[in-house]
Predict the structure.
Amino acid sequence: MNIGAVHAELEKIKSSSPDIEAVAVVNFDGLIIDDILPSNLDESRVGAMIASILTLGERVSAEMKKGDLEQVLVKGKHGYVILGSAGAEAVIAVSCNSQVKLGLIFLELKRAGQAIAPAILQS
């Protein structure tokens, strides 16, 4: 795994919009690969919750015959948490405020996911 390349992509995501508050790459077991999270968040708890949301999203998408899961969007009163694919082994999670331009985040997640996937597989 090329953790330097993963972190560089997280920095690009974070700097792409002032509305992005946190970003993380999490494997399907809920383990954080790398993150830029505020210090008041518990990494292991965040990772476990992301993995749970991802699992439920996959089940819903399959049950409703919507194909492979590509994204999960959680909207709260104060903003969004968006999960996007980072290849076959991980997901990118972005937390942003309610002022964010979602289209920009969707594009950035797709770009970053394509860059992070091979970095995770590097030995």
In short: Helices lie at 3-15, 43-63, 102-121. The first helix runs from residue 3 to 15.
